[in-house]
Amino acid sequence: MKPSFDPAFRAQFRELVLWRRDVRRFRRDPVPRERIDALIEIATHAPSVGLSQPWRFVHIESPERRTAVIKSFTGANERALAGYSGEKQETYASLKLEGLKEAPVHLAVLSDDGTHTGSGLGQQTMPETLHYSVVAAIQTLWLAARADGIGMGWVSILDPAAVTKALDVPKNWSLVAYLCLGLPAEEHLDPELERHHWEQRTDLKDVVFTR
Amino acid sequence: MKPSFDPAFRAQFRELVLWRRDVRRFRRDPVPRERIDALIEIATHAPSVGLSQPWRFVHIESPERRTAVIKSFTGANERALAGYSGEKQETYASLKLEGLKEAPVHLAVLSDDGTHTGSGLGQQTMPETLHYSVVAAIQTLWLAARADGIGMGWVSILDPAAVTKALDVPKNWSLVAYLCLGLPAEEHLDPELERHHWEQRTDLKDVVFTR
Prior knowledge:
Number of strands of chain A: 5
Radius of gyration of chain A: 18 Å
Number of helices of chain A: 7
Oligomer: homodimer
Distance between the termini of chain A: 38 Å
Protein name (chains A, B): 5,6-dimethylbenzimidazole synthase
Order of helices and strands of chain A: HHEHHEHEHEHE
Domain Nitroreductase (chains A, B): 18-182
Strand order of the largest sheet of chain A: 1-2-4-3
GO molecular function (chains A, B): oxidoreductase activity
Number of domains of chain A: 1
Strand content of chain A: 5-15%
CATH architecture of chain A: 3-Layer(aba) Sandwich
Largest interface: A-B, 98 and 98 residues
CATH superfamily of chain A: NADH Oxidase
Structural class of chain A: alpha+beta
């Protein structure tokens, strides 16, 4: 039977989207594996081009592998900092951009670029839709996590080749996102980058057009 | 005040994710522009790398531009069909892959690749995260639409260069998705591609790993 979603649900869904946040301050309390895998189950109902379902979720439990990822972040972050100057550099240096050391859960999300699932339907003129499918799963996971009281952060300041190597996954899998999950140490409605004056929200009239 | 999401909301959120569906069969009833723009407003609260908010939403109202998009689909779809053979080709030919002619709303979603918003934060080693941010907004829009009883379909069988040209947008904007929206003519829990035996759901154990 077709479900219907009432105004109260819709209002709460909007609140969920607004409160999602990229979390970089985690409590160290462990989160049971089953709780994360239940979020992944929801994420696998995201749309995928041609039903290709290219997402591969890798729990990183090995301390050595985690250390390699943190090393990759540190190097990339130092190079990024060096690329800014003056006040912007000072602001950048003051931002907390990841929670890799504190987060109890590290989850890499990759795309199996060699998958035959879906038989290539919908990918022929826009092959990037394979990775886009993985991103749709990640955003679904993010919302499901927040609804369950779990915070998530997406770390993109790292060398994807170095991280993929540290993960020891098949050659044709490519890294789409490296995620940290855990209980948030604090909760905010506004993004960290807005709160610390890195950037502001864009007005709707500047992103909606008619042709 | 920090919101909390109870088990009933979480169960309904999961139902929303499962019932989302890529809709290709639309009723022709018009959908008011404000209703679509309210969905876009929610989508702009999606995560974006460095708060870059690169998403640009373009309502396509001109019949000439819509015709150009349909022409691009038709050509790409014929080429795709020719690439399959035997039974797979027959199945492909029987699938309804888009609702471009019936859908009352055509919405192109592009990335402003030249934006300075966010000052490049988080994009330096993984520049693809700019487009990924746009995809996160699209999946958010998709869920918000379904919660509001509106169906959405993502058409990727088209030539992005031809479509971008038909839209007459700034040179450094690139097409991430061409979407159709409207009231669904039918509702299904299972994907069209599963119902018509193109592909099946992958088992969870084949997509979750530990390292």
